[in-house]
Design goal:
Layout lengths: L2 E5 L9 H14 L3 E10 L1 H12 L7 E5 L5 E9 H11 L3 H16 L7 H16 L4
Parallel strand pairs: 1-2, 2-4
Antiparallel strand pairs: 3-4
Helix pairs in contact: 1-4, 3-4, 4-5
Amino acid sequence: MPVRFSGTDTTWTCRNKRKTQQWLLHVIEAHGKQLGELEVVFCSDNYLLELNRSSLNHNYFTDIITFDYCAGDLVSGDLFVSVDRVRENAKAERVSIQNELKRVLVHGVLHLCGWHDASPEEKAAMRHQEDRWITVFPL
């Protein structure tokens, strides 16, 4: 499968890697696209903050940064996920860490499929898509 999981400065591992890979592939194919190569990199807040500063000139914590390498209908990219933010967001939203991880992962993939979240309307549409895809995750 061309979805790979790795880590930088964390020992975090993805549960149900195979099901997660299949789910992300399903999201991509439902958008009329094909999966190229997708790397999910788990990291700490500090690692992602430095990446956010150096790559995007943003000086704030975030849960995910998506690097888009798509070409036409071929979806490829790197998803850098802060496991610290996933934990904090899960606690704040009163959801499981696994549920929040699914939200963050599908958020990154939706960006690669052409969804945006710059405006309030786009953010609402993105959240709707996240909720929709979380419900179809194979348990």
